[in-house]
Amino acid sequence: MVSEIRRLLRVRKAKEARFKREGVDKKVTIKDSWRRPRGLHSKQRKLRKAKGPHPDPGYGSPLAVRGMHPCGLREVRVFNLKDIDAVNPATEAIRIGATVGRKKREVIQNKAAEAKIRILNWKDASKPGAAEKTQSVSAAQDKSEEEE
User: Fold this and answer.
1) In this structure, are residues 68 and 95 in contact, taking their beta carbons and an 8 Å threshold?
2) Nearest C-alpha neighbor of 93 from the set 118, 66, 121
3) Which residue has the higher pLDDT, 81 or 1?
4) Cα separation of 71 and 81, whole Å?
5) 95 with 76: CB under 8 angstroms?
6) 3-state DSSP call for residue 41?
7) Distance CA 106, CA 93 (A)
8) CB 124, CB 73: distance < 8 Å
9) What is the pTM for the complete model shown?
10) Cα atoms found within 13 Å of the Cα of residue 61, Cβ hemisphere only
């Protein structure tokens, strides 16, 4: 079953298409998000081959792997310790909510590590500003190496 899921994930990646909005290369103000072409003389609306593909049903991912993380596990959002109890480590990985604070994040990460649950957005929450300090220390070391 695992090999079948891996194969379907590869199929999903191979079918991945990049749909370009009409005129996105011509103007800076046009964003990259897809919008259906509606112009009367629009070549993309008329499905001219050189104007790029449209999002059609053939680009969809297989049902067995739809919504699955590329590592092959389903994502579960976690906001507190109760949410971790319902997670199956064999088939699910957790993503800690953005509104969760540093203290609660640290507790959730420790409990997930004990239960051998994969965390998709792990952060160093042990000390306040720990990530900032490590970045500033590494930057200072790089500067001192350049000076020497």
Assistant:
1) no
2) 118
3) 81
4) 24
5) yes
6) coil
7) 17
8) no
9) 0.66
10) 17
Residue 122's CB is within 10 A of a number of other CB atoms, namely 14
pLDDT of residue 15: 75
Backbone angles phi, psi at 52, to 5 degrees: 100, 155
| Residue-wise pLDDT tens digits, 98-107 | 999 999 999 9
CA 48 to CA 21: how far, in whole Å?
Answer: 14
Q: Each residue of 4-27: pLDDT tens digit?
A: 999 999 988 887 778 899 989 899
Please report, rounded to a whole number, the percentage of residues in the chain having pLDDT higher than 90: 55
Residues 6+ away with beta carbon under 8 Å from 92? 73, 74, 75, 76, 117
At which residue do the structure tokens 């290369």 appear? 25
In which residue are the tokens 């919008």 written? Answer: 35
